[in-house]
Inverse folding.
């Protein structure tokens, strides 16, 4: 294929340099990719894609044929190794860029922030390209950083604009430009929403930490923060002590729906339930496991028995207990049997007669 | 205590027959340990003929569930009788397993 190209001896020598060093480029590409991936992973930066490639010989030959005179040697070609990082959020592009700057020596003269290069009244390809030195060598590599939407637009634009070989009428170019503007707005909006959510979570954590739980609405985020305070530990330990049992930790997130169903609107409502119904929950657990030799319980035993005690005391009856297990375990006829059993046990529980 | 293991494609059915008390659990645990290595499919614990389960038996179920969770598989507990269902309920493990 490359033999069909008309390369002058200078370009042929560059191509030969490439062939001679290809195994080294492949090794280095893997190394820089791994280094960047490790750094981004450690920083907790979630990327949509992180990929690398070594330029194909045919692609390099084509480049040399077109503008070979521009290059004195292979060291002047900046994209023999190419990496691409695709992020979900625009502000993550800057975080990735910052990581790249720390890891590699950036050639600022050849690096382009196309996000800044655009005119104020035009929209288009927004991307950040850094040319960096391949560590320990004179060769260079290119790292592209962009968001998923920028990537989608760049691909669409590429397919529509260049591949067909037909000149694209202005109205289509205008539509592509409009699309770029819209995607830029969407990108900014995603980042804004994430930023607001992060702030909300910080505020909630701070409220939970300060103990003002009556002011904290009950939702997935607040409940998760609440669980970090191990609110059911004391009850679980008390129940476990009946049989000197081991407490097997499980996720208590499934109880969120149940607590909401029981009318809890704030974290304070759950705290009040723990305060008012722990004794009832303990009595239920003692009645159930006290006469067995079971020496392992799940960490969900506390909240489960707490909800049973609450429902019994509220007079919700068998239907309430059945609904509770339907909520926790999924609807099943067998939950009816459990509800019957608990209603039978309830007759002998001291807290029911207080 | 008897254990019958049947593997079809990525579904392994373990039929437990008898009483899974503490001494039996030691033997059953040994027998099921190799399954933990290949817990990326579905493991069905068929308890139709299981009449009793001890804490040690529960621990075997939990180990299988843990192995399956790590390897992307799942554990389904089938055909448990009322007294075993009651054990799962009063220890708080009922909502941990997919019980059919």
């Amino acid at each position: 294929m490359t033999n069909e190209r008309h390369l002058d001896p200078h370009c042929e020598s560059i191509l030969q340099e490439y062939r001679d060093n290809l195994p080294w480029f492949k090794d280095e590409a893997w190394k820089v990719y791994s280094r960047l991936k490790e750094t981004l992973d450690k920083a907790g930066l979630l990327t949509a894609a992180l990929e690398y490639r070594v330029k194909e010989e045919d692609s390099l030959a084509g480049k040399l044929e077109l503008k070979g005179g521009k290059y004195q040697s292979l060291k002047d070609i900046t994209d023999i190794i190419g990496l691409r990082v695709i992020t979900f959020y625009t502000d993550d592009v800057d975080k990735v860029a910052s990581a790249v700057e720390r890891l590699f020596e950036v050639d600022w003269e050849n690096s382009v922030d196309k996000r800044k290069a655009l005119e104020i009244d035009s929209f288009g390809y927004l991307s950040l390209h850094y040319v960096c030195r391949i560590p320990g060598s004179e060769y260079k590599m290119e790292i592209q950083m962009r968001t998923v939407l920028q990537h989608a637009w760049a691909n669409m634009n590429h397919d529509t604009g260049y591949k067909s070989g037909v000149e694209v009428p202005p109205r289509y170019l205008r539509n592509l430009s409009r699309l770029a503007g819209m995607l830029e707005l969407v990108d900014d909006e995603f980042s804004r929403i994430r930023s607001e959510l992060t702030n909300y979570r910080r505020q909630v954590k701070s409220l939970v930490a300060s103990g003002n739980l009556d002011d904290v609405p009950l939702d997935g985020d607040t409940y998760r923060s609440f669980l970090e305070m191990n609110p059911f530990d004391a009850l679980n330990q008390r129940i476990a002590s009946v049989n000197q049992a081991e407490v097997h930790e499980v996720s208590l997130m499934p109880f969120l729906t149940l607590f909401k169903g029981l009318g809890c609107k704030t974290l304070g409502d759950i705290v009040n339930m723990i305060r008012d119904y722990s004794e009832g929950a303990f009595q239920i657990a003692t009645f159930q496991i006290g006469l067995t030799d079971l020496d392992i319980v799940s960490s969900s035993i506390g909240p489960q028995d707490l909800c049973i005690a609450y429902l019994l005391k509220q007079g919700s009856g068998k239907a309430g207990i059945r609904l509770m297990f339907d909520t926790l375990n999924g609807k099943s006829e067998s939950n009816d049997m459990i509800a019957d059993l608990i209603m039978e046990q309830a007759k002998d529980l001291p807290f029911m007669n207080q | 205590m008897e254990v019958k293991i049947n593997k079809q494609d990525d579904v392994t059915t373990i039929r437990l027959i008898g009483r899974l008390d503490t001494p039996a659990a030691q033997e059953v645990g040994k027998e099921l340990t190799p399954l933990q290595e290949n817990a990326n499919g579905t493991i069905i614990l068929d308890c139709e003929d299981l009449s009793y389960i001890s804490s040690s038996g529960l621990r075997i179920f939990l180990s299988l569930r843990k192995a399956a969770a790590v390897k992307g598989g799942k554990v389904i507990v089938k055909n448990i009788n009322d007294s075993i269902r009651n054990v799962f309920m009063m220890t708080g493990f009922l909502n941990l397993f997919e019980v059919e």
